[in-house]
Predict the structure.
Amino acid sequence: MTSLVVVSAGLSNPSSTKLLADRLTAATVEALEDVEVVHVELRDLAHQLTDHLLTGFAAPELAAAQRAVAEADGIVVVTPVFSASYSGLFKTFFDVLEQGALDGTPVLLAATGGTPRHSLVIEHALRPLFAYLHAIVVPTGVYAATDDFAGTDLDARVSRAAGELAILMGKVSRVDSAVSKRRTVEDELAAPTPFEELLRRASQG
Amino acid sequence: MQFGIFTVGDVTTDPTTGRTPTEHERIKATVEIAKKAEDIGLDVFATGEHHNPPFIASNPTATLAYIGAKTENIILSTATTLITTTDPVLIAEDYAKIQHLTDGRVDLMMGRGNTGPVYPWFGKDIRQGINLAIENYALLRRLWTEDVVNWEGKFRTPLQGYTSTPRPLDGVAPFVWHGSIRSPEIAEQAAYYGDGFFHNHIFWPAGHTQQMVDLYRRRFEHYGHGTYEEAFVGLGGQFFMRKSSQDAVNEFRPYFDNAPVYGHGPSLEDFTEATPLTVGSPQQVLERTLGFRDYVGHYQRQLFLVDHAGLPLKTVLEQLDLLGEILPELRKGMAEGRPANVPDAPTHASLVAAAGGAKDSTVYAEADSATGHRAEDVEVTA
């Protein structure tokens, strides 16, 4: 059984962070065979995380979450953007993880924000953090501003990121279709996309 | 089974009065507390080592020697001696000297220290903490067991033909405990040498303590020093007692809530449940302490932290009076069901007996090869 852990740092209920986490989870589960999902909601662990900073040890629920993350075959992490970076609660969870807990673990990075202007938060804040933690970071990060929940682009990014995570986890149910490769010029020369298809796409926006 | 107290020497504001003791008051209080520990029949007094405010625990050897002169029976120990940043040559000299001054009433507990800047202050690198503990202690042992040491290592200048003086009392080095909370390498080190292993125990859940003690016991047996049950284990402990448990909780809560280590974090109730801290009646402290054996087995040394978090001296002395009242029950309880092969903590007397008796270990200097004189024989004329 493959183990997928989803760490979500949303604070409100319902939260767009949790919403994005759920979509990424569903897409990853679809791309994998035989997967068990563990959800870690950091809001529920907020007190225990602060206590851990002060005492140096984890209360039982936090300890269970840390164990799940350390034993995961793959992880999805989703944080809201606070003051141009990941939230303090999100960072605290990774601050108190045992060193080496994420070594070699595939991690999909995702974030939510109120405006598209924060979309690079994944590259300038999350990716360096997980590089430091020696995780294997999925190439596609998923950032969703409020507006993205109304469009269809988000779906494409979610399924591409989920497919990449599934490949890194090494247990893909549909190897060929987990990630749809972009067509190259060579592909088009060999078998051009029919013009009616181009016409349809052009109007899709 | 030994019972005692250990102090970290913190100078902390009493949150109930807002008053902070002076360094002088705190240093003198430490001596009072140690004398009281002997009065109520405790076996061990141990002091920590810190080199920064808000602590008065620098220079532990002066403190221990002074307390040694003011007491008769209590064993003087450390909690801990910084084996990482203290020159092992000085440790060898200092503690052998205290052995002589106190007729063998001294042992040590090695620790790495948890104050980051102490390493650079003493010219060391915290990332080398484990390696420092391993190399320095290996040298320390040689300085105590070999009269003349030729040594070269990574962390201090080499020694050629070096004799550490005074030689250990009766030719027997002080017993050594190694303290560590989460570093398996230190449990392994203690086991390798057949030394004692001490777990701080007080700020962490019992599961941490159990894992480390189990590792130490397994490896102690592996290295052929005795069986799993025969290894030398020490534990920390922490309590606040009043005759009525509600009085204890009410009085201790402000100290807990503002304590330097865990203050402003978990509630007193959560923390007492998760760690060995017991705040309640003497009977509750007695029962909780006797329960430590459930997860570490029969052990040799129990030290309590009683003077911390700004508790006034008067309160600390009252706590010791209450500890003295349950001490006979603690000793009786710990003796119950204790297998005959479980040894007591080594003392100077037991180590001398094991070595086949006391011997004078003085190294008498040879005569100077050029003059034929020994330095102390030369008459100095102005």
